[in-house]
Amino acid sequence: MAIPKHLQLEFVTPERAIVHDHVDEVELPGEEGDFGVLPGHAPLLAALRTGEMWYRKGSETRRAFIAGGFVEVVPDRVSILAPVAERAEDIDVARAEAAKRRAEERLAKASVVDFDAERARIALLRAITRLQISRQGRPDRKRPRL
Ligand code: ATP
Predict the structure, then answer these.
(1) Does residue 32 have its Cβ closer than 6 Å to ligand 1?
(2) Looking at beta carbons, which pairs linking 27-30 to residues 24 or more positions away fall under 8 Å?
(3) CA dihedral in degrees (11, 16, 19, 22; nearest 10)?
(4) Which of 26, 67, 97, 144 could pair with 37 in a Cys bridge, judged by C-beta atoms 3.0 to 4.6 Å apart?
(5) The 3-state secondary structure of the chain, one letter per residue
(6) Closest residue (by CA) to atom 29 of ligand 1?
(7) Residue 86 CB–ligand 1 contact under 6 Å
(8) What is the percent of the chain where pLDDT is above 70?
(9) How does pLDDT run across 66-98, given as a tens digit for each residue?
(10) What is the predicted pLDDT for the residue at 145?
């Protein structure tokens, strides 16, 4: 079978479509580490962790925040379903900074084994990841160095 030239990227949350496009390369935060997908990739199902995903179309790279979920890869398609995700340009920096502050305050008060501390750690990871993606996140013209 001929290797497909592009990937159809379908990236959705229960609330909205994040990306629906033909792309050349996708990089995802897998539970077991980051991994890349090029056209012709072997079929794969994988769980995702909270982190940054990016995809390249020609010379343009775009990024998005992703909070877990699943991906299905077939040779000409990448389908991502995430509970929560935002394109880099849609991240509200003030909101993420406020979430980061709240999480830091809760962590400062909580004991190490506390359930609330665990929730605050997750909230802090989400906020910090959003801020990092937003900072570097406007569409750019070169491949990012990860
Ligand atoms: P917050 O405490 O600010 O609500 P959160 O991490 O608890 O942050 P989520 O549960 O991850 O929020 O997301 C709830 C909804 O709000 C989702 O639709 C998500 O895309 C959106 N959202 C959360 N934070 C931001 C942000 N900083 N910028 C843009 N959208 C956001």
Answers:
(1) no
(2) 27/53, 27/54, 27/55, 27/146, 28/53, 28/66, 28/71, 28/80, 29/53, 29/66, 30/71
(3) 80
(4) 26
(5) CCCCCCEEEEEECCCCEEEEEEECEEEEEECCEEEEECCCCCCEEEEEEEEEEEEEECCEEEEEEEEEEEEEEECCEEEEECCCEEEHHHCCHHHHHHHHHHHHHHHHHCCCCCHHHHHHHHHHHHHHHHHHHHHHCCCECCCCCC
(6) 91
(7) yes
(8) 91
(9) 999 999 999 999 999 999 999 999 999 999 999
(10) 46
Tell me, using a 6 A CB cutoff, whether residue 91 lines ligand 1: yes
**CA dist., res. 134 & res. 96, Å (int):** 10
pTM for the full model?
0.90
CA dihedral 79, 82, 84, 88 (to 10 degrees): -40
Instruction: Return d(Cα 122, Cα 117) in angstroms, integer.
Output: 9
Q: Which residue has the tokens 């962790």?
A: 49
Distance 66 CA to ligand 1 centre (A): 11
The packing angle between helices 115-136 and 93-109, to 10°, is 150
Atom in ligand 1 nearest the alpha carbon of residue 16: 18
